[in-house]
């Protein structure tokens, strides 16, 4: 099935606090990507099956069945289906005077734009009712009712971001240039190693060690683009005490050596 992007927009009542601009579903082909682009509405995707990646603010999330992600207005994003197991997702784009407030109630923020919802069948059922109301019946009030129902499901307590994760992420942001190990994180939040691991896997889809590595590499990309520091200085500034390991990890993440990346970032080739 070829990717399908709905552009159906019903006439919206300006007195309504929110309105759906478009909603539908899509079975993506292998490796199909969309973007980079900017939207002028809030756009939520929910993955019914398969896998893919979502890139925003220089960070890439690797997502699977049951995960979802928010695209905020006026922020460049890119998302891509997995090559071996391309995702199928449902999406809804909405805006209005209450849209930002509703998004805040789900605990979305600049550093937390993904979620996981286990009851896939239930959420897809709401999506299909919303799609039918919007794209077939052209009923703005019925479709808006399903949008509120969909968003209310995402506000359940079990979807709220674990406060201990926020504390650990903040610690990593402030100390990424120094050695960080699991013992430090477990002491910080008074949890066991296995609990810390499960929290990162649940909310970030990666282990604590992988999160730290990716965060350091993201900072290294910024330094290579914006500074004249040597490769060794960039490595040390981002918490790598071995330049060879830094270069290897950097290449695995970006497909380029640090030298090649700097040249590309500054010259575009």
Salient structural properties:
10 helices; 2 domains; Arc Repressor Mutant, subunit A; globular; four-stranded antiparallel β-sheet; Jelly Rolls; alpha+beta; 20% strand
Could you explain how this protein is built, in words?
- The chain has 269 residues and is an alpha+beta fold.
- It has two domains: 19-159, Jelly Rolls (Sandwich), CATH 2.60.120; 163-267, Arc Repressor Mutant, subunit A (Orthogonal Bundle).
- 45% of the residues lie in helices and 20% in strands.
- Strands 1-8-3-6-9 form a five-stranded antiparallel β-sheet, sandwiched between helices.
- Strand 4 and strand 5 (59-64) form a beta hairpin.
- Helix 2 packs antiparallel against helix 3 (140-154).
- The two termini are 35 Å apart.
Summarize the helices and strands and which ones pair or pack:
Elements: E1 19-27, E2 33-37, E3 42-49, E4 51-56, E5 59-64, E6 67-71, E7 77-81, E8 88-95, H1 99-105, E9 114-116, H2 120-136, H3 140-154, H4 163-175, H5 182-189, H6 193-204, H7 208-226, H8 231-237, H9 243-254, H10 258-267
Antiparallel strand pairs: 1-8, 2-7, 3-6, 3-8, 4-5, 4-7, 6-9
Helix pairs in contact: 2-3, 7-9, 7-10
